Amino acid sequence: MKDYMYKENCDRYPIAMAYVPWQQFDGISDNLEEAYDIGTIFPELDKPFKGRRCCN
Fold this sequence. Notes:
The protein is mostly loops. The chain has one helix spanning 32-38. The radius of gyration is 20 Å and the shape is elongated.
């Protein structure tokens, strides 16, 4: 494996930037068994993975 030497000073760049949207509390799921299956009791956090790729 080739060893790459970076000549730039990486200390001046931020490590990461986060985008965190405001969330509204809409309550807890009524069906706790279904909530357990999807992994959250908060319906607004149920964001299923669609499996799409980011490139063509």
